[in-house]
What does this fold into?
Amino acid sequence: MTISGFKSLKWADPFLYAATDPRGLFRHISLKENRSICLSFIVPAAVALTEILAFSILGRETGFFHYKITYGLILAFLFIVFKTVVSAALMDSIGQFLGCSGRISETLCILNYSLLPKCLLLPLVYIFKTVNFAPLFFYAFFTMALFARSAYTAIQGLSEMHTIHFSRALLIYLSPGILFAVFILFISFLAVICGIGFIAG
Amino acid sequence: MDRNRKILISIFALLILSVMLAIIDISIKVQDDRDRDHRGMPFRTGPGVGIVRVEGPISIKSRSGPFDLSAGSESIVKRLDELSRNSSIKAIVLRINSPGGTVASVQEIYHKLWKIRKRNIPLIASMGDIATSGGYYIASACNLIFANYGTVTGSIGVIALSPNMKGLFEKLGIKMNVIKSGNYKDIMSSHRDLTKDESELLQEMIDTSYRRFLKDVALGRNQGISDIEPYADGRILNGETAQKLKLVDTIGTFDDAVDKAREMAKLDENSPVYDEYLTPFQQVLMSLDTMVRFGSTIKEGMDGGSAFTLEYRYRP
It folds into this structure.
């Protein structure tokens, strides 16, 4: 990127779309796919950093904080990326199952950018921590609220990408969570049966 | 579009700023904890000594609002209440660095301390630079009083001040129109002299508050009023003289007071000390708050004080 390109602030467009126009985000991604996918990984890194800090300011920190903000940050970033990649893969598979075309790189890009609102968790929680007004409550509240905003961005992006209705996009978005929940329930059920069998035998 | 991009970049800048602030804030906290570890006071839990700090002039008004900065009798009473309800707190050290304050606020703190004392929670007062008048009043509610050699204490008495600017008003040709429902409604007005009746009324109020002061100090110190009265003429004393006159029990530092509190509560010598804790960011706000208060004190002095109050306070 040239200096003039940097100064033009056009590189900020995907972030702007993610914040204001989720449908526009997909159109932007489809035009500049390669550049957008690389840039999109900044968002999980920023989210990992802000989430670690937001959690840390609420408690009493020890020297462990320095590990958390270095190695822990890398770990959190890798975990978010792993989660996003797996979710994108599952959403793409289910999308194809529902008759949509396979577009995993764009799905991954949308999911990454959709995490952008979560970056606001730190400044929001910081305000309530500083004024000492129910910081834990607002931490939980903003976590949920920003997750909802993040989900809305992703669903709108998916809806635009596959040119499907919002409800279908919602189904695709929720599918990895549903699959995971069913999987856990099934494993727990089998584990309980095995446990009972072990005790009875 | 260009404008929106600039707004977004500004939000990014704020995010980066908040990240930097949070990292600095947490790092200072971690460093503080490490320093405490090096001083042999690691962060621990369990039975220990609670610290309550009384800093500066005391008034009712609680300033514990937006930044949770404790000052004012309301927040001091709240802190005392929290400590007395905490089962881990076996003794309380009251660190006093105050010239006193308004009569009602001092009495509120005194009565709270007295309630705690009745519950057999050992109370130790540790005097800093100054613990005069109302500062001494609240110290007298404690089981023991520690002072440094150079602590300024005493000043037992009541004071009410109001400037008389009658001459200035006359010089400037300003006249006040006063319509009042009773003779005393504009008592202590700055534009006229005090009448004899008004003076007698105020003197009675002052004397009543003074007698209450003597009675409470005598009760707290387990002495007769007649033992204290000879020195209760408003004179200030240093720690050493105050000890000789039995207004103070021991000459010692804050650490000595904490050790004594541990001993009285039968705690281990390394038992934890629960001091009031402010985050580094709150400390910055506290110093800003102090500057603002210093400014308002100067203004108050120049204005001559807008509200009339009776004070247990040393006013040099």
In short: The first helix of chain B runs from residue 2 to 38. Chain B touches chain A through 29 residues (CB under 8 Å). The beta strands of chain B are 48-55, 89-98, 100-102, 123-132, 144-147, 152-154, 236-238, 250-251, 273-274, 311-313.
